[in-house]
UniProtKB/TrEMBL annotation:
Signal peptide: none annotated. GO terms for molecular function: nucleic acid binding. Pfam families: HTH_32, Mu-transpos_C, rve. GO terms for biological process: DNA integration. It comes from Acetobacterium woodii (strain ATCC 29683 / DSM 1030 / JCM 2381 / KCTC 1655 / WB1). It comes from the Bacteria. Residues 135-318 form the Integrase catalytic domain. This is Integrase catalytic domain-containing protein. Coiled coil: none annotated.
Length: 419
């Protein structure tokens, strides 16, 4: 199991306990019963069911030790096979074809009840994976979930986020498209963070979110659609590390994010008409004009849905703002994470540059993290602990550095160096 697998599993576990951590369910007992009754498609493991005891243990681990405590430990029986023997697979598929009308759960229980298998032989996940592989699952029911309008009462309970197409800039004689990345507080409609970018990339989203957290504190939940940047491993990990529940809408359901969509409509109708040609010659100028418009216009005009100005509403609940005790907590959570293999000369290639690592890492794949704003600051982590800082390779310094094994040898005849 790779470190990436462990993080994905930890993110899944965090998603299940997040409503308990953020206290966004009316009854913890009812929520635990509901989750325990469901089956879950778990990264790496496949289909699983979890009881209340397991969920409460994850809750305890996160409370005491944070996100990394949710990562799975290595199995003591690693390397031994848990697969069913070929004869057992053949029997199970035969019985399934004769009982295709049963749900997978009921079929698995029937196999044990009738004595065809023991509970240790065929867990629900084993049966599910086998039936899925052979396309013998029963079709799932049509989703008829409720989707009514909602609005939270308290500020920073939930932030909605999305990206909107912005105006074109004229940069060095070329047209460049812009993208407006924004975060809105669900209760007050205050824009907690927003900025025009030249791309719709994960790094741009993280930059705006980081700024919003430093300015407005931590929301309990972050509500986004299923766009690629909103489902990235980096965003999920950053939110889980900071204790923010990342909630994604169902695919192709833009109406579920009505507040942020309404804000974008306001920007198009009230801000864009004010822009001049000079405003569209520089990205920094565009963002300065936008921040001034937010402060002068949007935040201090009465919002029809709440009958109050967004900033007035937000500041009235300022006692609920939870600022981070140390900004370095946010810096650490937002480090970009990648994996690189250390070359035989103890170097790593990153961003078209060569970086020095310790010889102890030669030939190993290491966990690399670096700040989005300063990609030249590269750190190596092991078990989520920073253990090494990489520096850029400077060839001229290395040429005169003392070495244990010097690559240049001198002949005993005349002192002529041989490489």
């Amino acid at each position: 199991m790779t470190e990436k697998d462990k993080e994905l599993i930890a993110l899944f576990r965090y998603g299940l306990i997040a409503p308990l951590l953020t206290d966004t369910v009316s009854s913890h007992t009812a929520y635990l019963d509901e989750i325990s009754a469901k089956t879950h498609d778990v990264p790496h493991y496949g289909i699983r069911t979890y009881n209340r005891k397991t969920l409460l243990e994850w809750h305890r681990l996160y409370r005491r030790h944070g996100f990394d405590a949710l990562k799975p430990k290595v199995r003591t029986d690693k390397g031994s096979s848990r697969a069913l023997p070929a004869e057992s697979v053949k029997l199970l598929l035969k019985l399934r074809n004769e009982n295709i009308h049963l749900s997978v759960k009921l079929f698995q229980e029937w196999l044990i009840y009738e004595g065809h298998f023991t509970s240790s032989d065929c867990s629900y996940s084993t049966v599910y994976r086998l039936l899925k592989k052979h396309q013998l699952l029963k079709p799932s029911a049509i989703d008829t979930s409720d989707r009514r309008r909602f609005a939270h009462i308290d500020i920073n309970t939930l932030w909605q986020t999305d990206v909107s197409h912005g105006p074109y800039l004229s940069l060095n004689g070329k047209k460049r498209k812009t993208y407006l990345i924004a975060f809105i507080d669900d209760a007050s409609r205050r824009i907690t963070g927003a900025q025009f970018m030249l791309a719709e990339k994960n790094e741009d989203l993280l930059h705006v979110l980081k700024s919003a957290l430093l300015t407005c504190g931590k929301p309990t939940m972050l509500y986004a659609d299923n766009g690629k940047i909103f489902r990235s491993h980096q965003l999920n990990t950053s939110c889980a590390t900071l204790g923010i529940a990342l909630v994604n809408t169902k695919p192709y359901d833009p109406k579920s994010k009505g507040k942020i969509e309404r804000f974008f409509k306001t920007v198009r109708s009230r801000f864009y008409p004010l822009l001049t040609d000079a405003d569209l010659m520089d990205l920094d100028v565009l963002n300065q004009r936008f921040e001034a418009w937010l402060a002068r216009d949007y935040h201090h005009k009465v919002h029809s849905s709440i009958n109050e100005a967004p900033m007035v509403f937000y500041m009235r609940g300022s006692d609920r703002i939870k600022h981070f005790s140390d900004p370095r907590i946010i810096d650490e959570a937002f480090l970009i994470r990648v994996t690189r293999k250390v070359k035989s000369d103890a170097t790593i290639s990153m961003h078209n540059a060569l970086l020095e690592a310790s010889p102890m890492f030669i030939g190993k794949s290491v966990d690399i993290r670096y700040p989005n704003e300063s990609p030249d600051k590269i750190y190596i982590y092991e078990n989520s602990v920073r253990i090494y800082t990489c520096n850029k390779v400077i060839m001229k310094d290395n040429a005169v550095a003392k070495r244990n094994n010097n690559p240049i040898s001198y002949s005993s005849l005349g002192g002529v160096p041989h490489v």
